[in-house]
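Quick check before the chapter quiz. The format below is the same one you will see on the exam, so make sure you can read both the input and the output lines.
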Amino acid sequence: MLELYDGALDVPELLKKWYEEESRGNYGAYIPFVGTVRDENGIEGLSFDIYEPILTSWFDAWQQKAAGRGALLKMAHSRGDVLLHQSSYIAAVFSPKRRVALEMIEAFVEDFKASAPIWKYDLKNGERIYAADRSTAIGGSGLLAGGDA
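Here is the expected output.
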């Protein structure tokens, strides 16, 4: 399940909802990861643009990997502005075995940072400034890769 929201994520609400949705799924492990906007470089927050077709395809491939190991993935991400100390990203793995969940959450979060088609902007002085130094090009994406061609 992939969920996109405008603005900051309501962490307690989403984690509770996901837990309740899967509480009878016979999973022995539920491991969430919550990403929070840090106070650094004088930013007021971050802003996000998402290319949903590629994100959905990427997430579906991960769901298939998870299903192959008897697990289930859930993810929520923000569109638009998210202020300091608010959450823009939540991922969770449900699995019958803890080892599968632990391995999968680490691999999923790392691949998300490297591969998800989400562009990050710093919010400074009321402006949205592309964070090129903290962005990763998407392999094989042509114009979406950013940088010089």
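If your answer matched, good. The longest helix spans residues 98-115.
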